[in-house]
Write a structure and sequence with these properties.
Shape: globular
Strand order of the largest sheet: 2-8-7-6-5-3-4
Order of helices and strands: HEHHHEHEHEHEHEHEHEHHHEHEEEH
Helix content: 40-55%
Number of strands: 12
Bound molecules: pyridoxal-5'-phosphate
Distance between the termini: 57 Å
Strand content: 5-15%
Length: 390
């Protein structure tokens, strides 16, 4: 008889994103939870996908990604950050950012290695480290404002530290790292065998005129970093599942060793269509900050007199909502009440933590039609009024 199967991630269940989206569908609630747009993609992109399939691009794509697409990515890194990145040796097309993160971690983390991640963090990091046999050390971001405690990071980096997982703009904290943060990250990893994985899927969504600080534009960090990006975010099409990883050739070689046995290569017609779409729009990505800032401002204005507090959102697809002044439930219970009583699905913050502090925050996705945001705000305002009424 086979022993009961424990599996390699016995404590991991279905993610909060999947659970909340499923519950939202079952209850016919408005879904401001999982981070995906509810509006249509640009019809031109759909046309180009159809054209790529009709044009016969339906067999395996090159393992490292379509050269034409990697050239478009390199051209943009040149235009935006002034970088000269070799698409052949330093850019790999992956199955979304998720695969880039997973494959990079498998490529460099060995059993017994330690990886520093922050608390809260995007939920795929820690399981990927554990599957590589590594141990994630989670360092809390400090309140108020989810600030890095660089002194604590410095004190934690040791002989076994292999990787730091960095994310800016940050999901779910909605904060963007400063150039001082990058300088501190460089300092704590200097003269050590420590690499950086920088999740920059929201690189184009930094608000209020601020610049995105990429590890790629910090030469010292660029030399020891995997930087991860997502066309799902950039093209409002999370279902495409196409992303990419930029890393120096030595790291890229290691990444590709895993990538080739993980996904091998990414949907060929999609890569053609994306490359053609980007070629038609040399300025791609630059419109996103204004587009999402207008949505953030719309939602914030609509909730301004609700009694909920709205922490500053410096970037990403999201806006946090702090209900602490109106209700003392835990965030999981509050999200459940919002779902069942207000008909709005949100994402509570505690699943992003290894050790959740006492939190009164839920995350709202702003990548929605204006009418969805307006209806969501109306329901949240009505619910807040009920809470204020006792
Ligand atoms: C911070 C962060 N990293 C990675 C991802 C995954 O990106 P992709 O959908 O391209 O796999 C997401 C998606 O929400 C994210 O928010």
């Amino acid at each position: 008889m086979m022993r009961a199967l424990a599996g390699k991630l016995p404590d991991v269940g279905t993610t909060i994103f999947t659970v909340m989206s499923r519950r939202a569908r079952e209850l016919d609630a408005l879904n401001l939870g999982q981070g995906f747009p509810d509006y249509d993609i640009d019809p031109r992109l759909a046309e180009l996908v159809a054209a790529a399939m009709a044009g016969g691009h339906n067999q395996y794509a090159p393992m490292e990604g379509l050269p034409w697409l990697r050239e478009r990515i390199a051209a943009r890194l040149g235009a935006v950050y002034g970088l000269n990145i070799d698409p052949e040796s330093a850019i790999t097309v992956t199955l979304g950012a998720t695969e880039a993160i997973y494959s990079a971690i498998q490529a460099v983390v060995a059993p017994g290695d330690e990886v520093i991640a922050f608390d809260p963090a995007y939920d795929s990091y820690e399981p990927a480290v554990r599957l590589a046999g590594g141990r994630c050390i989670r360092l809390p971001l400090l309140q108020p404002g989810f600030r890095y405690d660089w002194e604590r990071v410095r004190a934690t980096v040791g002989e076994r530290t292999r990787l730091v997982l960095f994310n800016s703009p940050h999901n779910p904290a909605c904060v963007a790292a400063s150039s001082a943060d990058l300088a501190a990250l460089a300092a704590v990893t200097r003269d050590r065998e420590v690499l950086v994985l920088s999740d920059e899927v929201y690189e184009n969504v930094v608000f209020d005129g601020a610049a995105h600080h990429s590890v790629l534009s910090h030469p010292e960090l660029a030399a020891r970093s995997f930087a991860v990006f997502s066309f799902g975010k950039t093209l409002h099409a999370t279902g495409l599942r196409v992303g990419y990883c930029v890393a120096p050739p030595a790291l890229t070689r290691e990444l590709r060793k895993v990538h080739q046995f993980n996904t091998f290569s990414i949907a060929h017609p999609l890569q053609h269509a994306i490359a053609a779409y980007l070629a038609e729009r040399p300025q791609w990505g630059r419109e996103l900050a204004g587009f999402f800032q207008a949505k953030r401002d719309r939602l914030r204005a609509a909730l301004a007199s609700s009694g909920f507090r709205l922490p500053a959102a410096q970037g990403t697809y999201f806006q946090l909502l702090d209900y602490g002044a109106l209700c003392d439930l835990g965030d999981l219970d509050f999200a459940e009440r919002l779902l069942t009583e207000a008909g709005v699905a949100t994402i509570p913050l505690s699943p992003f933590y290894l050790q959740p502090p006492r939190l009164t925050l839920v995350r709202l996705c702003i990548a929605k039609r204006d009418s969805t945001l307006d209806e969501g705000a109306a329901r949240l305002n009505a619910f807040a009024a009920r809470l204020r009424g006792g």
